[in-house]
Design goal:
5-stranded mixed sheet; 5 helices
Length: 246
């Protein structure tokens, strides 16, 4: 009789342990779901560099551009970003100013203008300048070539040497078959992560910016944007608002 009771007690204990083991994964999975949704944008910088710095030089203060006023381009510390398209979007932070801002895209040797545009801002913030596809007044970005872009804040229209200027590079590359396949996914979050994983800076930024414009109240996207800029040393403008594309 004692042996029977001992066996019965042991069976009940084993059953309880089995129930606990089988139910644990479900609880862990439920807890890990929010972590998946809040994952950072893991941008992997490509092994490319460019001359110069994304920081502009100092300029003497003028009525339109008080001393200390400067624009900040959104580009990695290497001062170059990759793109897959002939018409990428270049992002820049522009402070509140009544000065005109001139965007210019040149060939790598800076001996030919590919595209240029002049604009003004109503308020400070981050602006995206999209380079049009091939047209009557501009050329397309060719695969395998680098281009130099610049933003010039025209502080004195009568003396362009007073401009506050920042420069950076864009290089167009061709997507391989695997990358094309991955980017065929219609989900923007998936494409965002594919761009970031493959070091495609301009599309990473443009995709996330577009998602934020579509759902501006999404705190998760705001956090991703802030983290992405901070990861590239752009803390000073990470919290600045997106004020619209051009």
């Amino acid at each position: 009789m004692k042996r029977f009771l001992h066996r019965a007690t042991l069976a009940v204990a084993l059953s309880a342990i089995a129930t606990t083991v089988h139910s644990s994964p479900a609880r862990v999975q439920a807890q890990s779901q929010p972590l998946l949704l809040s994952q950072n944008v893991n941008f992997q910088p490509p092994d490319v560099t460019a001359p110069g710095s994304r920081q502009g030089g100092t300029h003497r203060g003028t009525k339109l551009c008080p001393a200390g006023l400067s624009i900040t381009p959104l580009v990695p510390p290497t001062n170059i970003g990759l793109t897959l398209t002939e018409s990428p979007t270049i992002f820049v932070y522009v402070p509140q100013t009544s000065a005109e801002v001139e965007f210019t895209l040149l060939t790598e040797k800076e001996d030919a203008v590919v595209y240029e545009k002049t604009f003004k801002v109503d308020k400070s913030g981050i602006i995206g300048v999209s380079i049009p596809a091939t047209g009557d007044n501009n050329k397309s970005l060719e695969v395998g070539k680098r281009y130099v872009w610049s933003f010039s804040m025209v502080c004195d229209p009568e003396d362009r040497s007073a401009d506050s200027v920042v420069k950076g590079f864009v290089q167009r590359i061709e997507a391989q078959a695997t990358l094309k396949s991955d980017l065929a996914n219609p989900d923007p979050m998936t494409r965002l992560n594919v761009y970031a994983k493959n070091g495609i800076w301009y599309e990473t930024l443009a995709t996330l910016a577009q998602m934020r414009r579509q759902t501006p109240e999404d705190a998760r996207l705001t956090a991703k944007w802030t983290q992405l800029l901070q990861s590239q040393g752009l803390e000073s403008v990470a919290a600045q608002p997106l004020v619209g594309p051009l």
